[in-house]
Amino acid sequence: MEMDNKAQKIESLFQELLHLIEEHPEREGVRKTPQRAAEFFIDIMNTRATNIEEVLSRSIFAEDYDEMIVLKDIEYFSLCEHHLLPFYGKAHIAYIPKGKIIGVSSLVRVVEHYAKGLQIQERLTNQIADALQKALTPLGVAVIMEGFHLCMMMRGVKKVNSYLITSAMYGCFRKETRARMEFLEFYNRLVKK
């Protein structure tokens, strides 16, 4: 019931917005736009839909494996907290286990979980790395994120081919040059494909 009330209020706000910016807000193409926009914002802002700690705890397994594990090209979509415009891209995650590994799909779920809500790419990168560091206590965690930001592409400087790369390196990826270089060399090979 509370969600229905929230959806109705958001829909009403979009209806008002359309009346302010649209010359013909009752035309066929935009009649259902307030409802669709409300559904979108409720979905993308639903940060409480997943208890990420619980998801992670169910998908951690004891395993005697101590080499780098990398999952590349995890697509994500988020919403810029400065302009309410989307940013999207790919996340690349690496970790070196210390007696525990995690199910591959849970790495994707971590990215999806933290991409919900109003975000900035820098914080998103750190939140993903923090969650994996806390859940796995590995030898190291590395996250690199690439992001295309519509707030930069559609307004302001209007640069459509520029994208932001952020990284978070913990444990051996921060302290040991060899581990960091191995991941960065691997990452560089990944982005060329």
Structure characterization notes:
The structure is a single chain. By secondary structure, this protein is of the alpha+beta class. The chain has 2 domains: about 1-45, GTP Cyclohydrolase I, Chain A, domain 1 (Orthogonal Bundle); about 55-190, GTP Cyclohydrolase I, domain 2, CATH 3.30.1130.10. It contains 8 helices and 7 strands; from the N terminus they run αααββββαβαβαβαα. The strands form 2 sheets. The chain has a 5-stranded mixed β-sheet, sandwiched between helices. Strands 1-4 form a two-stranded antiparallel sheet. A hairpin with a 5-residue loop joins strand 2 and strand 3 (about 85-95). Helix 1 packs across helix 2 and helix 4 runs antiparallel to helix 5 (about 120-135). The longest helix is centred in the N-terminal third of the chain and has 20 residues, at about 1-20.
Please outline the helices and strands.
Blueprint: H1 2-21, H2 33-44, H3 52-58, E1 60-62, E2 69-80, E3 86-96, E4 100-102, H4 104-115, E5 118-119, H5 121-136, E6 140-149, H6 150-153, E7 164-171, H7 172-175, H8 177-192
Parallel strand pairs: 2-5
Antiparallel strand pairs: 1-4, 2-3, 3-6, 6-7
